[in-house]
Amino acid sequence: MADFVTIEKGQGPEGRIAVVRFDRGDGINALSPEALRQLTDAARSFEDDAGTSVVVLTGGKDAFSAGFDLKDPEGRARRDMDLGTLRRHLKLGPRLTHAWHEMEQITIGAIEGFCVGGGVALAVALDFRVMGRDAHLRVPEIGLGMNMSWQSIPRMLHLIGPARTKQAVILADQRISADKAYEWGLVEEVADPGHAFDAAMALAAKVAAQPPLSVAMTKLTVNRLAHALDDLASHMDLDQFALASFSEDHKEGVAAFLGRRKPRFKER
User: Fold this and answer.
1) Which CDD domains does the UniProt entry name for this protein (predicted)?
2) pLDDT attached to residue 41
């Protein structure tokens, strides 16, 4: 089984920075079920790591992630699953974003190229995001007859507010440039093309120089206050996703995507 994720610990000042690299080497970095599992395991591997206070998550040089892998055999098998089996399989995504969101370490995403769908869901589960100036974000789920899930809607809402969240999610074909993402508050820093990782490491070094216990407790306090009602508001998004996946519009959306044509939705 291929390793899509590598972890390098002991980086930066006092060795308190770790780098997690997600790179499938294919230029698009799609999130197959196996990639979701490996990224979840990577986040969980820091649970008892007192020596690391900052984790930088980076993708490939051409792409952070193209989102869920619609062509992966395990992923495509969802089409034939009964509802119970499908619900269990759909937990892979929220399990991933929850693992990264709940980490005690400060997390920073370095985004180059493009960050799409599930890639955006992962990025907004982090504490900070740094983006190359020529990179872009896109949330295509609705255009595929699905809904944006993995509990990312409330996370986006906290970052950019209700109208921008609707704009980003509902206008599925809209690319969000790095400058626009910065203007909206979706990313914290824009770097020169190809230098998002360097900028993320510079930010990580500043965080790593702070007292680790105070940093961890502050992160926990902010997260608990900001996200107190998130689970109440978004616990249904998995079931909404499952429901949407049985719709004709979803089948049409995926067929149109794979066939590179414009979909025709009929509200059924």
Assistant:
1) crotonase-like
2) 97
Q: Are 240 and 147 in contact, with CB atoms under 8 Å apart?
A: yes
Q: How far apart are CA 183 and CA 239, in angstroms?
A: 33
What does the longest C-alpha to C-alpha distance in the chain come to? 58
Cβ–Cβ under 8 Å, residues 116 and 65: yes
Q: What is the CA radius of gyration of the chain?
A: 18
Full set of structural domains in the chain with CATH: 5-194+215-259 (3.90.226.10)
As a whole number of Å, the end-to-end CA separation of the chain is: 39
C-alpha 39, offset from chain centre: 11
Long-range CB contacts for residues 244-249, cutoff 8 Å, separation at least 24: 244/145, 244/146, 244/147, 245/78, 245/86, 245/146, 246/83, 247/145, 249/145
pLDDT on residue 1: 60
CB 211 within 8 A of CB 14: no
pLDDT in tens, 190-246: 999 999 999 999 999 999 999 999 999 999 999 999 999 888 878 788 888 888 888
Name the residue with tokens 């294919």.
26
